[in-house]
Amino acid sequence: MSSIYGFYGGSHSSTVSLIVDGRLVCCIEEERTSRVKSGDNHESLPITCSKKIQEYTGLKIKDADYRVWALPCPSKEARKISGLNYEKVSHHTAHNYGAYFTSGFQGKVLSVSFDGGGETSYMKVFLCEDGKMLEVLNLPVALNGSLSHLWGFSTTSMNGYHDNYMSKWKICKDEGKLMGMAPEGQYSERIYRILNSLINYKDFRFFPTDTGTKAKFIGMSMFENGEFDTLKQKEVFSFNLQKLTEDLMLRFFEDLHIKFPEYKKLVLSGGLFANVKLNQKINELDWVDEIYVFPSMGDEGLSLGSAIYKAVQLGEITKPFKMPDFYLGTSYSEKDVDEILKTYNFEREYYDPDVIAQDIDDGKIIGVFQGRMEFGPRALGNRSILTRPTEKETHSLLNSRLGRYDTMPFAPMVLSDNFSEVFTNSKSKYSSEFMTICFTTNEEWIDKIPAVIQKSDKTARPQVVTENNNPMIYHLMKRYYELSLIPVILNTSFNIHNEPIIENPQQAFEHLKNKVVDKLIFEKYVYKNR
Amino acid sequence: MFTKIDNVLIKYDFNDGISVTVKGPEPFYLVELREFRGTDEHSVVLESHHIAGSKPRFRTKFILPIKFHFDFEIVVYRYNYEFGLERIYNHRLNLRDRLVKFKLDTKNEMECLLWVETIKRFCKKYGCTPWVESEFEHINHSFVSHLNIPTDKIYKTFKIGRFPKSSNDWRTLDPRHENELWFGWYKTFWSYEHPRDYTKLNPQELVDDILGFS
């Protein structure tokens, strides 16, 4: 049995992961420890997170049995991390291994990854069964276009440029803004045609090539032409971008289904599947039994994917397993904060779910810092901000507290038992534990939880909470449900605008001090300003 | 060389690598360098840049220092309000009946003579007129007299020799970078001047390498 460190870096989304004896021990993203958002540093290496993971787990990188790095790997730079060489794992192989082996899916499974490019390809497809994976499709960069590039370079063009010509919205960071705006727009034959000329799909090929440069050219030209001057124009563009993405990908999945009709479970990974609306459409396909989107679907998941790949090669992981949760990061205890707390003037009391449920019902903004940090882009209740979902105004209140301008709605947590009562489709509930798919809200709930519903298309991106995956949040929600008859709480990540999700308690205390949150739950205590 | 399409002036030059400038009323133009492979009539993008037209933003010239021979075309696009990308011009490398200059960078006369034979073969194959420039006058004069030819008549220049690796590496950058330079994603040459590592080539292989016979 062995210890395996997996790495990814040299681009955006640097991370490190550790697997010991086939067990996922720890995964940390560089942005959490360096405090620079991944999208703001496209040349980051997993330096600070490597230091942190060694401190946290006590296992030095040099003492691990294996070190693997998902490609592309800047070899010279990579050696700076430990002075050692690494085994290399193909980018999309790492995406697919990470996704399939954490899906828990038995039987025949199709695993698909798609993003802005690994070392040589945009996409790989594997047929999977009983822990065996067979690569059946590989889309080379040279001969294909990428929908991720269309999103990325549309994003950089849409909101203009700083004086140094750097775009205001960034690739690999702000694409969600376009997805959030899309439902407010409407179909435009002209915009759709223009976007379609930049990328199309037929017979397992996305074309023409070089989508990024073309998309950037069209985006810049449209910006100069005044075609992004108003919010409405941006919304219309985004709507058509989302529609084209869904149209092409659904055609692709239909072709996959024709070719492999007995495969009805889908595993998805790669940055394109950060698009929760696209995932919803795939999940709603009649022939699909269930989908699983890797919770760290972007390149941040590659360190884990490459380590899983190695563990599979060694025979230490043999079958897909279900993740009980995705809390794979660092944790802190009360002992760790004794000294820090002396510098603050907080009141402290024991955590009482009844009191906090009442606070939530009263509209208070509650910060939560408990247990181990989440791995991946979503805050799933351990580094989260919670409040009531019942008031429309909560959106602007939270936006002002967090210094955020997004129109995209906040996400709901929903009690597992009430999931099918609130949402129309209950397929792929396991994946929804990680907030990776949108669902349409049942009519009778739309007015009850307006702060977490996209007003135009009535969708939401829920996190299903069970007693197993997050007991503390589950019991708090139960109390809130008893009080309000609402089995839903608004959940957003614990960070202010342009800040990575918090990693340590001091960052949480600072936000309490600065009144970003009204109260802070830290392990068994609740803190508030005097 | 230049051409004018509507009110867009397009200049291209293949003498020191490949360069294209475009002047016109649009803020930007898109220039692609596309490669034809084998007998396939469909070219693939090798490199592309946006360049400034009326808008002095970003680069003003498409330039790539590729100096060896391969089958390529340059394509220029502008933004069309109705259709998006509009191809306004393309030019495929065509050496037939063109004056092509060969600069032989060697002090070894035997090597020079060997290269000249390959140059003759190259010119016969492509139907171009050679102008040879070397350290050896008698070799130069065995080709066209270059004294009275204006330099702007030279369609393409090839340098043949051993050139430093340091300044000519193809680089692969993450295309997700802002204002990226994007070279050789899928075709990693050792340098812009030699497709292969010249230190491993003998003189015959060297000239074959640069003139595309290898």
Task: Record keyword descriptors for this entry.
heterodimer, A: 530 residues, alpha/beta, Nucleotidyltransferase, domain 5, DHBP synthase, 5-stranded mixed β-sheet, 22 strands, 35% helix, globular, B: 214 residues, alpha+beta, Immunoglobulin-like, 4-stranded antiparallel β-sheet, 11 strands
Task: Give a verbal description of the structure.
The complex is a heterodimer of chains A (530) and B (214). Chain A is α/β, with parallel strands linked by helices and 530 residues long. Chain A folds into three domains: 102 residues, 2-Layer Sandwich (Nucleotidyltransferase, domain 5); 191 residues, Nucleotidyltransferase, domain 5, CATH 3.30.420.40; 196 residues, Carbamoyltransferase, C-terminal domain (DHBP synthase, Alpha-Beta Complex), CATH 3.90.870. Chain A has 19 helices and 22 strands. In chain A, strands 13-22-21-14-15-20-16-19 form an eight-stranded mixed sheet. A five-stranded mixed sheet of chain A has the order 3-2-1-4-5, with helices on both faces. In chain A, helix 7 crosses helix 9. The termini of chain A are far apart. With 214 residues, chain B is α+β, with helices and mostly antiparallel strands. Chain B has two domains: 91 residues, Immunoglobulin-like (Sandwich), CATH 2.60.40; 112 residues, no CATH class. A four-stranded antiparallel sheet of chain B has the order 1-2-3-6, with no helix packed on it. Chain B has a four-stranded antiparallel sheet with strand order 5-4-7-8, with no helix packed on it. In chain B, strand 2 and strand 3 form a beta hairpin. In chain B, helix 1 packs parallel to helix 3. Chain B is elongated, with a radius of gyration of 18 Å. About 8% of the residues of chain B have low confidence. Chains A and B meet through helix 5, helix 7 and helix 8 of A and strand 4 and strand 5 of B.
